[in-house]
Design goal:
The chain is about 30% helix and about 20% strand. The protein is of the alpha+beta class. It has a four-stranded mixed sheet with strand order 8-1-10-9. Strands 2-3 form a two-stranded antiparallel sheet. A hairpin with a 2-residue loop joins strand 2 (about 50-60) and strand 3 (about 65-70). The protein binds iron/sulfur cluster (SF4) (2 copies).
Length: about 250
């Protein structure tokens, strides 16, 4: 049920078209950035960047191998951000029933900075950011205005390599599983020596990220920790929201 984006990271060339298109659609101002010794720019998600192509560099058998990860809100089926926000300001974060899109509303302005920090901390993918000027908590809204008008999100529209697809969640899951099967079939017939090495690593590690719980589904060819710290869900210690939810349950 709902809408999903499927991101095949192996087709991403890091052109950053999606990152720019997202900024334009959301009228985000350009903020001057510094060169920080990496192609990733800006270095992290900001209140003006809901989408960020993350770069990571690895040496495999003496050859440099770049991994690209267009990072954004995963539109979790059970969003921890909303559960935490609801403890303080009900419906500051809402889930659109028809599409499953998770949206930060203007009511997030009523949250304190500490409460916003707690919400950010509860997100397994470290996504929301607080706009310190307006006091709002913001993140990707899957271009809900476009989706409701029957259009695809801007990032998907702008991607010319076919790394991103958008549609019904069931269809995106099928696409992701087909891609996994295809990658595993490729492993059976490696072509060169280097490819054999890379392909062997792939064999052990190509994966679909946390797909049962997310509205944004990623296909990866390498272990998740090789992309960035929050690529996949970490098993986090119990946070305050979970703790309080546990207390509210009746004893058996
Ligand atoms: Fe909320 Fe984080 Fe899930 Fe996005 S990825 S819906 S911000 S918990
Ligand atoms: Fe990668 Fe497509 Fe985004 Fe370009 S537009 S950075 S190819 S996902």
């Amino acid at each position: 049920h709902g809408k999903s984006i499927f991101i095949d990271t192996t087709r991403c060339t890091a052109c950053r078209g999606c990152q720019v298109a997202c900024k334009q659609w959301h009228d985000h101002e350009a903020v001057p950035t510094k060169q920080t010794g990496t192609h990733q720019n800006p270095p992290d998600l900001t209140p003006n960047n809901f989408k960020l192509v993350r770069f990571s560099e690895h040496k495999i058998d003496g050859h440099v191998h770049w991994l690209f990860f267009p990072d954004q809100c995963r539109h979790c089926l059970q969003p921890a951000c909303k559960a935490t926000a609801d403890m303080y300001v009900e419906d500051a974060i809402v889930v659109d029933e028809a599409t499953g899109i998770v949206v930060c509303t203007e009511k997030t302005k009523e949250l304190t900075k500490e409460q916003c920090d707690e919400i950010i901390d509860s997100c397994p993918y470290n996504i929301p950011r607080r706009n310190e000027i307006s006091g709002e908590l913001v993140k990707c809204d899957m271009c809900i205005d476009r989706v409701q008008a029957g259009l695809v999100p801007m990032c998907v529209k702008s991607c010319c390599t076919g790394a991103m697809s958008f549609g019904e969640r069931e269809d995106m899951l099928i696409k992701a599983k087909l891609r996994l099967t295809e990658a595993q079939a490729e492993i059976e017939r490696p072509k060169s020596e280097l490819e054999t090495k890379i392909v062997c690593d792939v064999h052990k590690s190509c994966t679909i990220l946390d797909e049962e719980d997310l509205g944004v589904i990623y296909f990866l060819e390498m272990p998740r920790e090789m992309y960035h710290q929050y690529a996949g869900r970490e098993i986090k210690p119990l946070n305050r929201a979970d703790f309080l939810a546990g207390l509210a349950k009746p004893f058996k």
